[in-house]
Amino acid sequence: MQKRVMAVHDISCFGKCSLTAALPILSAAGIEVCPVPTAILSTHTGGFEGYTFEDLTHNMLPVVKHFKELDIKFNSIYSGYLGSFKQIEYMKTIISMFKQQDTLVMVDPVMGDNGKLYAGFDMSFAKEMASLCKMADIIVPNVTEAAFMTGVKYINPPFTTDYFDTIIERLKKICAGDIVITGAVLKKGQTGVVICHDGNTEYITEKESEGMYHGTGDVFASTLLAGLLNGFSLKEAGEIAAKFIPVCIEKTKELGVFYGVNFEQCIPDLLNKLKLT
Ligand code: PXL
Q: What would the pLDDT profile of 165-175 be if each residue is shown by its tens digit?
């Protein structure tokens, strides 16, 4: 049976993130994606000025109520960037409406990066996002998001394993499911992810690609979910996703793009990694 995901994110028309990353990556991996757009922006909010923002909060519940009437079932519910407290509340409603025993709820608490929250978010929003993470089977924060949700002070990388131990202990109180923290730099020149599953913590390290690229968190989370729904273990899917990001960044450098990564031309590589070719 083909797997089906409900993807609740915004559409940033230019910038290669949220739904413009989740849709192609999951679809290429053979998964049916049903988007529930939360907003339409002309660009993402990182590095652009004057972007438009068409709020679609009012449309979220009518869309999913229709899904419910049609008795559509989902193998996974995947949320990313949510623009307001109301959207977080609706996301909780959506999970309550559609979560069945074997539905994988992935919450990517998109809120910030490099020690700073994105435009429009504050500490109280981080608290609310943490309360959404309580309903998740897996959460995928970067270090900044993990620090804001746990109240641990953000420090500049490289981080220590003690730092992650503190964050993870607090995150476990927020989410009883799996925890994957991205941007886990333990040494200069390296990056990676921390995976916490069944009480065990593991580190996956990769060579750090220079430069700062938007949307890599969304590409990572979508790839991780593609791996999980194709039957890979959390560690295997984490490795596939962690290895895919530097491939995308290297491809991007060839083109000199700054606003997102060239993941599209790396999809054949991803399909090889997922053993789908
Ligand atoms: O990549 C995460 C993201 C998603 N959606 C919007 C964003 C960002 C990051 O800046 O601004 C609208």
A: 999 999 999 99
